[in-house]
Amino acid sequence: MFRFLNLTLNGVSLGMIYAAVALALVMIWRATRIVNFAQGGMLMFTTFIAWDLAQVHGVNYWVALIVAVASGLVIGAVAERVLVRPVENGPPLNAVIVTLGLLIFLQALAGMIWGNAQAHSYPPAYSFVGYKTGDRTLLFSPNDLFIVIAVLVVVVALYLLFQRTPIGLRMRAAAFNPEVARLLGIRVGRLLTLGWALAAGLGALVGVLAAGTTAGYVQPVGPFDALLVYGFTAAVIGGLDSPVGAVIGGLLLGVLLSYGDNYVSNRIETMYAFLILIAVLMVRPAGLFSRTSTRRV
What is the pTM of this model? Predict the structure, then answer.
């Protein structure tokens, strides 16, 4: 029973990271009907910026985190304005190719600046030592609690932004019906840029949080690509149209992967993710929490 509790708590911590990546993907999908495959590259590059500041130049953890998030906001805005907007009204494949190209470019640029050969470690915000319950130690540490709280705060903040503020309501209107929104005087282009910026800023936060969980996590190719795969899987499980589904899908995926790694084998984690995805799509092709009966591709 104690082992099951440990695995569940570990899954919740990982699941919150997957949920945040999924939420970033859902935000862009709802606004532009584009799956941003460059999300992994964006959060990788901003994490490298934070690592460089914290580990090379000795900058405070929180300052490095703020700079990373700010860098994500800028990268997301520039990507939408310069790369995505010229092709967003064309065939859907064009946007896919652009985001994949941006992913490859960011990976290559990070390799040129910081090197491909060495995997770097990023310091966690808090201790890795698990909480004690009697004479036992939980596999849930202050750093895990920080990850859960940080993602929950961002989720609540985004909910309040989209549900309770004028700019959030304009962003929703621009996403659901841009033609009507333009007739009402809403500057749809600026709001789409803001949406991409927020998604990239969220990704930057997730990248720093994830980098502090495992030694050698910060490298141009590898861990962040897997993080994108799990985030995308969580988004599809929950429904690409549903922010709530993205969060629940991430938590569900994190917990199930934790169980699979420990009760079956930890060598085929990616296969577990795809099996879970296939099982959900066989039952609910549009995702567990999608409001639509079919998915647009």
Answer: 0.91
